[in-house]
Design brief:
The protein is of the alpha/beta class. Helix content is about 20%, strand content about 30%. It is built from six helices and 15 strands. The mean pLDDT is about 95.
Amino acid sequence: MASIVVLGAGVSGLTTAMLLSRNPAYKVTIVAKHMPGDYDIEYTSPWAGANFFPMADELNNRWERETWPELDRLAKEVPEAGLHFQDVILYNRQKDVDNSTTGDWIKNLVSNDPWFKDLVPNFKVLPREGLGPEFASATSFTSVCINTAIYLPWLVGQCLKQGCVLRRGVISHISEAARLHNSGKKADLVVNCTGLLASKLGGVMDKDVIPARGQIVVVRNDPGVMTTVSATDDGEDEVCYIMKRAAGGGTILGGTYQKGNWESQPDPNIANRIMKRAVDLCPALTGGKGVEALSVIRHGVGLRPLRLSGVRIEKERIGDTWVVHNYGHGGWGYQASYGCANGALELVDEMLIPNARL
């Protein structure tokens, strides 16, 4: 038997622990400062939309490509997980085709010939004549939207069913995690899924990890479609997207992508711009009645754990502890969660399978 501590209980940590614990030879303890049900600026996953809007380019799409089949299965077969299908329209503005930082961030998503066109259902390029003059192109497909308030506890339930133990813990150095396995013995390996906190955790201190602040407004209105646009006129770090969470989770209006910004409180001026952009892009959101007809549930801020050099899926020996890293997903943690967890699992198996067979 091999003992593993998974550090972190966001979507990456819980998905990784769930896949690891499917192997009866692995005894998994999840250690985290924050757990599902908590709302804290350090804990990103509850604030996410979340959905499947592929952001990777052709060469780096493994994580998202491997995740879609499972999200598709959950939406079809596991209603209690809190996913549902949504029709998507993606707009690419003419002015963003050659000149926009934000447009560059999602250029693969709004492409007319993306790598995922044969992965997701019903992909098509919309006729140019049906678009407004400000749009160069638009595409549509069927995706999923996740109610994170349901999905994260569902992941916890799957972990518990497979024998995982969850415990609260606050550590200053990653080597401490190995001593928090519920067996009372030092764990054979630690999986580091600490997200944004990887920038502050002793033994890791990854200065490539920074927040990409996302501010949202959650409303009761039904847009009838999940949509986004390549950029906005309100600055390079302000974006526009609309998605309706499953099972009464409300509609997410976003947002911002503010690199290096740690501010935890919503900015009222940004909130007003978010709501105006959403209603302008999708008038059906309020039945043509304008921003005043939005029924606001709450305002929120989440800090995406962006790693400037890309997601980190690799193994490392830190002191006397073997560590597998799985962090740095930025704004695509959910939509790459199964792919990245599988990548981490492969590394764990490389190191522990001989021990696990004893």
